[in-house]
Write a structure and sequence with these properties.
Layout lengths: L9 E5 L11 H11 L3 E6 L2 H10 L1 H6 L2 E5 L5 H14 L5 E4 L21 H29 L2 E6 L3 H4 L7 H18 L5 E7 L7 H5 L14 H7 L10 E4 L9 H6 L3 E2 L18
Helix pairs in contact: 1-9, 4-5, 5-7
């Protein structure tokens, strides 16, 4: 693939405002790699300050119309509909959707490792709305354009199977399990439409704003940048016909041609083969 293999592609990336003085997040990395590959990108986030930082980092793309920052709370169906309408009006009909935005209870002020019966009801519900409901709504809103185009990409950021089943994660773990199950269903229902659905997984804890707030030593964690190369490949025509799969950024070999790197990962969605185990979790010691 050439460096501009995504020229002419319009993409939406949720959780795009994950940039602070402490860390660069996965959503911001995905935006960067798509822009570098020539795509026009709309970045969604409810974090206005983070979006401003990302927009400032891509000021030339903002001015040229290749990057559109959109303030959007994906837990709100109304916000999602308004954001999609703005994207279509400003830059055109997207054919790539990265459902990356996600939160955990700790992002909402929960401290410590909390058992499920001690979890705040409202926090638990909001985790489901951001991690499951928002991707469902945005996918429904953008899918008609993809089907009409006879080509599209839906990529969901998932997590390792072990994380889904970890104790003290009764909000986050099941939400990611639900998102991945949805991806498996969508892949089957979209068969032969030209629209593919896959999951991209870091493969361990990543140094982001969220982990920085937990007081974890970021130098010992995976870097968000590992998500960029597989994300750009999944968004491209080189991944035509690849659907219903989960890809692990931690074991993506950037020394190989991207299609060869992808071919080494034959993990199906929904954990028939859950893939490589993550490294030791620095929070839980497992």
């Amino acid at each position: 693939m050439t460096s501009q293999h995504l020229a002419g592609t319009i993409a939406v990336v949720t959780g795009a405002g994950s940039l602070s003085e402490r860390a660069i997040g996965i959503g911001t990395v995905i935006v960067q790699h798509l822009l570098d590959a020539g795509a026009t990108v709309a970045g969604f986030d409810w974090n206005g300050e983070g979006l401003e930082r990302v927009a400032a980092a891509h000021s030339s793309e903002v001015q040229s119309g290749r990057f559109l920052p959109v303030r959007c709370d994906i837990s709100s169906r109304t916000d999602c509909a308004a954001a999609v309408e703005r994207v279509i009006t400003k830059i055109g009909i997207p054919t790539v959707l990265f459902n990356h935005a996600g939160i955990a209870e700790t992002d909402l002020g929960q401290t410590g490792l909390t058992r499920f019966w001690e979890t705040d009801y409202d926090r638990w519900e909001l985790v489901q709305r951001v991690n499951v409901f928002g991707p469902f709504v945005l996918t429904r809103l953008l899918l008609p354009g993809m089907i009409a185009n006879k080509w599209g990409r839906i990529i969901n950021t998932s997590t390792s199977f072990q994380t889904m089943m970890d104790k003290f994660r009764s909000g986050y773990g099941p939400s990611k399990a639900a998102l991945e199950a949805l991806a498996g269903i969508w892949a089957k229902e979209l068969q032969d439409t030209g629209v593919t659905v896959n999951c991209l997984i870091p493969g361990g804890m990543v140094a982001t704003n969220a982990t920085a707030r937990l007081g974890v030593d970021l130098s010992k964690l995976l870097k968000a940048e590992i998500m960029g190369p597989p994300a750009a490949w999944l968004a491209s025509r080189a991944s035509d016909g690849i659907t219903g799969r989960r890809f692990f950024a931690r074991v993506w070999d950037t020394a190989l041609d991207p299609s060869d790197a992808a071919a080494r990962q034959q993990y199906p969605i929904a954990w028939v083969d859950p893939g490589p185990r993550r490294p030791v979790d620095p929070l839980l010691g497992t």
